[in-house]
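Q: Convert this sequence to structure tokens.
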Amino acid sequence: MEILIIRHGQSEADVLNVHEGRADYPLTDLGREQAKKLGQYLNEYCPPDLIWSSTLKRASETAQIIATEVSCMMKYEKNLMEFHNGVLAGLPREVAATRYPIPPSGRKPHERIEGGESEIEFRMRCEQVLSKILTESYAVARIAIVSHGGTISNILKSILQLPVKSHVSFHTGDTGVHLVKIEGDKVAVKKLNYLEHLQRK
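A:
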């Protein structure tokens, strides 16, 4: 199975410079254009047979645009949502830094942000949803997962069997694509944060 792991396009929160997480902002016009360019690229070179999408607007809208371009099925999965950032969701970054400062030594992996989840809980949620997706997509040759930066980083760490406390993270730009092939117990990373589709006119 090939897995295309895709981040959503630019959202309104990116422009407003607020903490996003579970705050449910839609795509900007640029974000929709980015998604359309990615859909056109995928349709030409590696169309998925099935798209799994986070239920948050910025991801589900991206997935819908791609699905229209490649003419494939979609499934929505709430556990593909971004890190549950509790009280930070939707707050301007400068306000959050004053009202909810990060402790000098950082938050411990088991400590929940107020009203949200811990890093360990986030990682376990990503492990669980990846297991579900792989199990339910067993008959499909190529799937796409449309999600969010933090969730994508944890999904990749899960696929690569990196520990929960790993200091490795995977950056993903707007509509960035990671391509992974799983064959039995072997994993091949074929692309990381692919963005060349955005250069298309």
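The mean pLDDT is 96.
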